[in-house]
């Protein structure tokens, strides 16, 4: 006698803990963003920047856990976007602002206004980036992100703040770069440059021996001295898409610009 379930057989309801688990990771991302803001207000920029990277960890886990447990939902996607806006849109801008605005204001009110505008534009670009991603999620190539992902932009900004906050006095040049970094990150978020995505990586596929060496080595270097290594790694990713686009431009006959990304 067959024991296969029939279409009329009621399915067992999913356990509440399994359903809530992805949203708990999303809440962790949101909490890290909030903690980063509070830490920056209190002047603890090391913890503020570290909170952004913990938010990155939680953000990377919530979607994967939802897919592994079969608990993806429209509510979870909306909640994830709101958490991302706080952790990767508002928190990095406020951390950069808190670190540099008082120091750059010493060089004149015009520099202070420049810092305020740069931080605000980063937040606006993050909101636009998330809105565009949600609107086009169903029709875009899953292998690439259109524009710099907001978590990577946040990691880039946090890495520079963490790195410069260890200086005793970065000077005007260092402070100007501090606000250029979120400005550039914001512009790249709303650009059409295609950035490689890790969401479609086949984790069951065979891994080249090279990655068994470079990945543990990179993690060891990050643990040994986080600020410069994180700045280096995130800078490489942020500059990767514009660099590829520029190389293709130089190689094309007549210098015709290649398309930055497909719709």
In short:
The protein is mainly α. The protein has 8 helices and 2 strands; from the N terminus they run H-H-H-H-E-H-H-E-H-H. A two-stranded antiparallel sheet has the order 1-2.
Indicate the topology.
Layout: H1 16-41, H2 45-69, H3 74-104, H4 109-136, E1 144-146, H5 150-165, H6 171-189, E2 194-196, H7 209-224, H8 226-251
Antiparallel strand pairs: 1-2
What does this structure look like?
It is built from eight helices and two strands, in the order H-H-H-H-E-H-H-E-H-H. With 263 residues, it is mostly helical. It has one domain: Four Helix Bundle (Hemerythrin (Met), subunit A) (Up-down Bundle), CATH 1.20.120. Strands 1-2 form a two-stranded antiparallel sheet. Helix 3 runs antiparallel to helix 4 and helix 5 packs antiparallel against helix 6.
Helix-and-strand structural type? mainly alpha
Number of strands: 2
CATH fold descriptor: Four Helix Bundle (Hemerythrin (Met), subunit A)
Helix content: over 70%
CATH class category name: Mainly Alpha
- Major sheet: arrangement of strands: 1-2
What ranges have pLDDT less than 50 throughout 5 or more consecutive residues? none
The averaged pLDDT comes out at 83
- Listing every helix as H and every strand as E from the N terminus to the C terminus, the arrangement reads HHHHEHHEHH
CATH architecture: Up-down Bundle
Q: What is the CATH H-level superfamily?
A: CDP-alcohol phosphotransferase transmembrane (TM) domain
Tally of helical runs: 8
Number of domains: 1
Could you tell me how far the N terminus lies from the C terminus, measured between alpha carbons in angstroms? Answer: 53 Å
Portion of residues in beta strands equals under 5%
Q: Which shape, going by the Cα principal axes?
A: globular
Structural Rg = 21 Å
Largest sheet: 2 strands, antiparallel
